Amino acid sequence: MREVAGYIPDIGEEDFQKKILIFKRNDIEIEVEIPLLTIEQINKVIDKVKKANTEILKSFSVVEILNIIDKAIDRLLDRTTSYRQKAEQQLPIITGYDEEVIRLGLTSYLKKFRKHELQRFVLEDLGNPLLLDDFQPRIKGGFSKAVGPNLITHIWSGNVPALPLWSFISALLAKSGNIGKVSSAEPLFAGWFARLLVEIEPKLADCFAVIWWKGGDKERETCILEQSDVVVGYGSNGTLESLRSRTPITSRFLAYGHKISFGVISHTSLDSQKSFGTVRQAALDVIRYDQQGCYSPHIIYVQHGGNVSPREFARYMAHELDNLEKRYPRRSLSMEESAALASWRQKEEMSVFFDSQKEVLGNTTHDWTVVYEEEDINFTPSCLNRVIKVIAFEKIEDLIPTIEPHRAFLQTIGIAGSPKELFHWAESLGRIGVTRITALGSMTSPEAGWHHDGRFNLLDLINMVDIESSAEVYSEKFAPYVD
Amino acid sequence: MSKQQEVIKNIVCFMQNEFSSDDAFNEHALQLFSYQYQNNLPYQTFCFQKRKTPRVVKSWRDIPAVPINAFKEVTLSSTKTEEAEAVFMTSGTTKGIRGKHYHPTLDVFDQSMIFNFKKRFMKETEKIRMGILFPTEIEMPNSSLAHYLALGLREFGTEDSHYLITESGVNMGRLLKELDHAEKTGKPYALLGASFSFVHMFDELKRMGKTFILPKGSKILDTGGYKNQSKELSLDEFYELLSTFLGVDRSEGINMYGMTELSTQFYDYGNLSVPSVKSGPHWIRTRVINPLTGEEVPKGERGVLVHCDLANFNSVTTILTEDLGVEVDDGFLLLGRVQGTEAKGCSLAVDEFLKAAKGVSN
């Protein structure tokens, strides 16, 4: 099977160097063909996108853009359309995740970009969506308008399917030209989305490009970075550091680094009736995308005092992961990942010698692993791929000192607890760097309008242009109709 | 005779018999397994967890392989560690904890080294003038490599052999004299040491614009990779530079693969093509496994190496490495260490976390 990735506006050339990426799962192979542009071609694309942005995209009203995106999402949600079918068929092969995990994940994810959700998205950041179209009066006097940059460059990374949509759609709403660089681990979805948009509104054909180069290609990266107004970078801190150092000081660099998330479970959710559901939600958060998302849990903290003890919780969790493995098997791991996982587990098994409270649960083929800790409450990341640590605690205050040093890496917490606990814990954890608190079981699907890593989706992209009231008053003097 | 003496006697005897059978290897491995199981409590617990006791293990392939990390966490010794003649430690610096390998006596280690070194490196040569690109045993008393090289020098080096490393790095003055001398006299010369020291040497020679053509019969032995001590060269570049700067044919550039956790080393037959085929003597055997299942992978496929070294009479015979390799005819290809994996998605990888955590604690 061969699939062409990326999307390039018409730059009067069709002759591109091509790079072939090969993906294989269960004996089905896909060759992904992706154009590799020369510096000259990249420059042409940049000029084209910037021009189309000024002349075309900026003339659309935000409602018109919302409608176009809504139509595109509509088609992607409809399982009878060719794009959706392609996604369901090819993404499992590209990313290795189970078909059902992808199908369910896609639907729950795409739903967040329907029109009514996007309206919330815009409202959330701007209050008045019309700010994106026109100067709007302000309460203090004067007028303001939100103006999107000419060119936003997105450096996407990772293999969580369709992840690029967040920043791509935000940038479209900001009426900005876009160049997106897809990752080799999931090079397809962003290009499909771009093509779909153009099918729905051909006028947008030159307003964006989805391309690829090998991460770290200094020449190509520098060429694009130097010409971008805003750069949205995803990846490890090392990668981001390198990108930021080459972004002009006059441009904005938005860094979305790798993060750690975790679950916190109160004893109130662990009575004989509710505990089963709690365990299941926690296990689901672990198996979705095999914990590869920044919002996926590395650790589940479980409070003492419930009918089900933290130790029992860990054992139930093991059981649940074993069940889920049958229905949603884990992606097959590379030899490097396998070795890392095995070595992680061996190390844990080894430490059981010194810590009689500890338990390491897993099957002989390492499809999942649960480590139960009581003594050592240190905050250490999991090696992922369905490896989870369950740590017992008495009260949240005991945990804070171990988590706080890692403030820069914290993101989501999935909570199972009473309303009182929810707000109490949110207060303590928010103070040490956590930016998203969600229900256990919803960790991997953030709401529309969420503050990704605590930041704004649209506000961070745009510039506000103010007309101060003095200008308005002063201008009256020069009106042709002045008395 | 104590139990330990008996064990040593048996194994040395086995090492001396080059034409021993598969069955004999198996028998010795199982005897050692039983000895270590009985005398090494942490290992016993480890085996028990895996439901592998001497009663059920019938083949050396079934002996539970101890991950090399375990040498950091627990004491793996069948005798009292206070009485050990030598303790070799790994250079691993994570959390400052180093793996420890206890040798109650170095007799077995030394015999293993000498037999094998003679056969694979010295070959027909009895003695050779040596230059060692590594610190001495006195400078690094817990380094198995320092001991290995010292032994090589003592047993096979001529009297005018030298150490060529000082506190400030490669002693270039001395090295140039040695190379000059070899070139002038036409007497074969052997240079042995850490791979990264060779890289430093190449850099210096390049800076000075010097190249040599060492006499026929000269030999090179490098080991250990780069360990962040120098820039990383590909194997091909490394052996190419070796022949460019020293005029030693790539087939005379031998790479030794050894580990602190073992008492036996592996060698290749030169590095004309890389990666070269590595193999060891008859008292060590290697399996290539899938780390998730512990099963052997089909021949020709990549996996993680497990070594069963009968010269490890005191610690554990069978260790699980973090090295990737492929089984081939006559040995295995070493594909390097399993690198910490980069994050696949956007969740933080353990390696990045550790790096950052180091920053916090410094």
TrEMBL record, chain A:
- Molecular function GO terms recorded: acyl-CoA dehydrogenase activity; long-chain-fatty-acyl-CoA reductase activity
| InterPro entries (alphabetical) | Ald_DH/histidinol_DH (IPR016161), CoA_reduct_LuxC (IPR008670)
If you read the UniProt record, what top EC class would you report for this enzyme, in one word?
A: oxidoreductase
Tell me one GO biological process term: bioluminescence
Annotated SUPFAM superfamilies: ALDH-like
Q: Record's CDD domains?
A: ALDH_Acyl-CoA-Red_LuxC
Keyword field = NADP, Oxidoreductase
Which family, according to UniProt? Belongs to the LuxC family.
Top-level taxonomic group = Bacteria
**What's the protein called, per UniProt?**
Acyl-CoA reductase
Q: What is its EC number?
A: 1.2.1.50
Catalytic reactions of this protein: a long-chain fatty aldehyde + NADP(+) + CoA = a long-chain fatty acyl-CoA + NADPH + H(+)
Tell me what organism the protein belongs to.
Peribacillus loiseleuriae
UniProtKB/TrEMBL annotation, chain B:
Acyl-protein synthetase LuxE domain mapped to chain residues = 22-353
Q: Which InterPro entries match?
A: ANL_N_sf, LuxE
**GO molecular-function annotation terms?**
long-chain fatty acid--protein ligase activity
Q: Does the keyword GTP-binding apply?
A: no
Ordered alphabetically, the record's keywords are: Ligase
Q: Name one GO biological process term.
A: bioluminescence
This protein is called: Long-chain fatty acid--CoA ligase
